[in-house]
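Review form for a predicted model. The reviewer records the input and the model, then writes brief findings.
Reviewer: anonymous (R2)
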Amino acid sequence: MELSYQNLVIRNATAEDSVQLANWWNDGKVMAHAGFPNGLGTTPEKITDSIRKDSDEAGRRLIIEESGVPIGEMSYRTVCSKTAEIGIKICEFSKQEKGYGKILLSMRGLRIV
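Model under review:
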């Protein structure tokens, strides 16, 4: 999947994103809001394994980019037919509070079958 609007892009996470995701997930400041003030303590290798198991049907980890630079992540997990849970995290603090969450949720083309 790849969706874009102006300078924002949502795309599937790949193995190459594992180091960036590990940096964010292991940062207690980034993860404190989710109940992990010390981070997750995970590795890029574990994240790569998880990404490889993603599928359009069950759910995916997605990367949010602004002007080609990763600024956060999204995910969706299918709950049941035509129902999914969506998570959005803007991980770069300087990019928070800019209304990106609303824009990202409004981008057309995100469809769960």
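Findings: The helical segments are 18-25, 28-31, 44-52, 100-106.
Further findings: The chain has one domain: 2-106.
Recommendation: see findings above.
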